[in-house]
Amino acid sequence: MGSTKREIAHNFSPHGIIYKDGSIDRLSGNEIAPPSLDPKSNVLSKDVVYSQEENLSSRLFLPTSVDASKKLPLLLYYHGGGFCVETPFSLTYHSYLKTLVAEAEIIAVSVDYRRAPEHPIPVPYDDSWTALKWAASHVNGDGPEEWLNIHADFGRVYFAGDSAGGNIAHHMAMRYGQERLPGINVAGTVLIHPYFWGKERIGNEANEREAVREGIDAMWHVACPTTSGCDDPLINPIKDARLPSLGGSKMLVFIAGNDVLRDRGWLYYETLNKNGWGGKVEIMEAKEEVHVFHLSNPSSVNAVAMRRKFISFIHEDR
Fold first, then answer.
1. How many Å apart are CA 314 and CA 318, to the nearest integer?
2. Chain CA centroid to CA 103, Å
3. Considering only CA atoms, which of 42, 34, 150, 36 is closest in space to residue 102?
4. DSSP label at 268?
5. How far is CA 246 from CA 105, 176, 249, in A?
């Protein structure tokens, strides 16, 4: 019998290929790093199930150099990958989180959420919220994970993510603004090159190649087939009338000068500054850099500067 060749619907190489039958070949993020004690950073990591029902885990990171009784800021981190590729367990995100945790002296939960196209939006948002509720179950020191019981400071909780993960971090802050969790204080959110978009071209988007713009449009429709389009508040938060109710008291947005998403980050920053939100919002631009450059070149001058700003943002109120 001859094999049936799948027809390509969208080619997002080098990251993934989506087929018309709804399947996907994931081409990036497949190199897995096991949890371990890293002797260079002195960071211990382990994988912990946060949803028994869906068999979903998070990767936890803890610096071993801190005092056993010291409470640390808690970071919930959401990985990027267009909602379709990458995981917290990939070498890329494992390396980034262990470095950040070592330098910042924080405890981090790197959240694994189900991905499109098999699990389209809102599933990634719902899984990420479930992970936050799981973390919140440790507020009284009697949750299932001892690292959080002993070390997590639930008065200093932060959301962060890059690209699609930045989109998720924004929506976690939005939901937290609507549904406060007892004992949890989300102090702030960090968006790294967030995946925001819109129907009308702004800034330098009009100068970008049409194939690039169409690819961003197409990726959103793969991630969220039920979307109303690229002005859906899920991808264009400027269109969300509830934006002033964003949870937390401060926001840090990172953008890259040569990133097609740059102007969306600027618009988000400018809107938060004038829409009555009331929190403190900062922005940092790496002028000559590309999308998520800090992951591919973590030791570069600009990537190091990003981490330092990230860390100072977490600790500035102490």
1. 9
2. 19
3. 42
4. H
5. 26, 8, 9
Q: What angle in degrees, to the nearest 10, is found between the helix axes of 123-136 and 164-178?
A: 60
Is residue 126 flagged as an active site residue?
Answer: no
Q: What percent of the residues of the chain are helix, what percent strand, and what percent coil, each to the nearest 5?
A: 35, 25, 40
Chain centroid to CA 89: how far? 14
Q: Please confirm, yes or no, whether 127 is among the known catalytic residues.
A: no
Beta strands in the chain (DSSP E): 8-12, 16-19, 24-26, 37-38, 43-51, 56-63, 72-78, 107-111, 152-162, 186-192, 250-256, 280-286
Task: Find out whether 27 and 16 touch, Cβ atoms under 8 Å.
Answer: yes
From 38, 127, 162, 259, active-site residue: 259
φ, ψ of residue 138 to 5 degrees: the values are: -100, 5
**pLDDT tens across 158-186, in order?**
999 999 999 999 999 999 999 989 999 99
Catalytic residue among 79, 151, 193, 291: 291
Active site residue 231: no
The percent of residues in the chain predicted with pLDDT above 90, rounded, is 95
**Catalytic hit among 112, 163, 263, 294:** 163
